[in-house]
Every structure is written in structure tokens, then in C-alpha cells.
Amino acid sequence: MLIKRKSIEKEESSRPATAAAAPKAARKPKYAPVTLSEQDGVRYLHFGTEWVQGAMRIRKPDWPELEYAQQMMAWMLWIEQPRRIAQLGLGTAALTKFCYKQFAQADVTAIELNPSVIAICESMFKLPQNDERLHVLEMDALDFVNDKANHGALDALQVDLYDATARGPVLDTPEFYQACNACLADDGIMTVNLFGDHPSYAKNIKAMKFAFDQVICLPQVHDGNVVAIAFRRARPIDLEALKLRAAQIVADTKLPAKSWVKGIQQALQK
Known about the structure:
Layout: E1 11-13, E2 28-30, E3 35-39, E4 42-46, E5 54-57, H1 67-71, E6 84-88, H2 94-102, E7 107-112, H3 115-124, E8 134-138, H4 141-146, E9 154-159, H5 174-183, E10 184-195, H6 200-211, E11 214-217, E12 225-231, H7 239-253, H8 257-269
Parallel strand pairs: 6-7, 6-9, 7-8, 9-10
Antiparallel strand pairs: 1-2, 3-4, 4-5, 10-12, 11-12
Helix pairs in contact: 5-6, 7-8
């Protein structure tokens, strides 16, 4: 089974005007169908293709099942008590649910354009209802990051925006990543799910390095997923301190944080 990415489909179409003087018809997004599969106790989300868009182990609904989703939490190596976390692209709500449960004092926001994805997460992937800490919003991720009300507000931003045909992130410009940067607090960190053997990879890395002071990529997992860690403010990488922090993360959460530190060390040696 291909496990490469989580995505949203946004393809726009327009209705031809019936007369020269008639106003343009509103452009509406079209979404790929939301489909499900199950295997060995794991429920998978698809958008009408074999591509896996996210997963949930049915007996552990709050656990990020896929390794790349676990790597998206690598910002925990530097941030122990986040106050506000946002996720762009809901998928199966794996990151949203984990953050909501793990950080009891944090405000957790998820942005998803496709209303069907939100509905399926609520009905089939154990997504809790919104409350004073959890905010799942049906909106465009670009609108969210461009909203000045969100600037300087986030400690951690997790970006996982793909289309259903696996062509690369749907938002990948320097301007988009600059807006992501603007949403972070001074010591904020962004993690992004990329696809290492796709032409979009180099474009995204170049755009991130334009917008952020420091970018580190973890080793590829699954069939191509690469998680990039982008720091709003460049910082020295103290591997010994990270190893100690990783051990604490493993003890507290069982996330494979020690492997993240090994990946960071490999990246620094390149």
C-alpha cells in the first residue's frame, strides 16, 4: 500500500456566461471523493485513489499511526509547553487529536478546506467536537496564514497540504511560507510534509529557505515522505541537549524522538 501523503483537493471550475453582460458565475471548489479502507486494525483515508491520506489504529485513535506524522511532532524537541498549535490540512486528524490530548493547556487549531473531510473525521476518526481549546475550521489555509490576527500567535505550525493526485503541496510559494513564518512566535517552529522524490521537493525547500532562517530535513520514510523542520529564528543545534529531551519525549509519549535526533545529526553532517 502506498503511504506517501495526506492531502486536500481544490480544483476550481467556472460556468460560462450566458450573455456578454451577465456577471461571471461564482467559482466553486471541487473535491475528490472521500473513501475509506481498513487493514490489520488500521483505518485509512483516501480521496478516491490508492494514495493513503492518513491513518488511525482503531484501538488507539489518538495515536499518530504513520511514521511521517510522528516526525511532524519533531518541534517537541525544542518546545516543551506550547501555548498555541495549528495544523494546515486535517487528514485523519491524527496530529490534531494527539496535540489536543498531549498538551492539555494548549489551544489547538486545524484548518481544512473540504467539509467532507471534517465530517468523516468526526464520524470515523474520533475527532472531538470543538470546545474552548479545539478549533477545527473549514477554510482555506492561505486565508488563515494571511490573516494578521494569527500573526505572531503560534508556537508550532504543522503543514500537510497535498492534492488528491499527489502532485506536490498545493501551497508552495515563498509568499506562502513567508506568511507561515509570520504566524509564528519568535521561537516558533514549522514542520512540513514533503515528498522527497518528486519535483516539488526542491521547489518547496528553496521557498522555505527563502522564508525561514534555518531549515533541517529528516530522513525519508515510507515511500518518499520527508519532514522539513523550519525555524523562525536560527539557533545552534545542541545534539546532547536534544538527546536528553528526546529521552524525555519517549518516556512521556512513546513517540520515537531518539530517531529524530539521529536524523537531525545526519542532516547536519551532509
